[in-house]
Amino acid sequence: MAHGSARLNVYGRTLLITRVVHDGRPVAHVARELGISRQCAHRWVSRFRLEGAAGLVDRSSRPRTMPRRTPVEVEQRVLQLRVQLRQGQDRIGSAAGVPARTVGAILRRHGVPRLSECDPLTGRVIRASKQTAVRYERARPGELVH
Question: Distance between CA 96 and CA 88 in Å, rounded?
Answer without folding.
Answer: 12
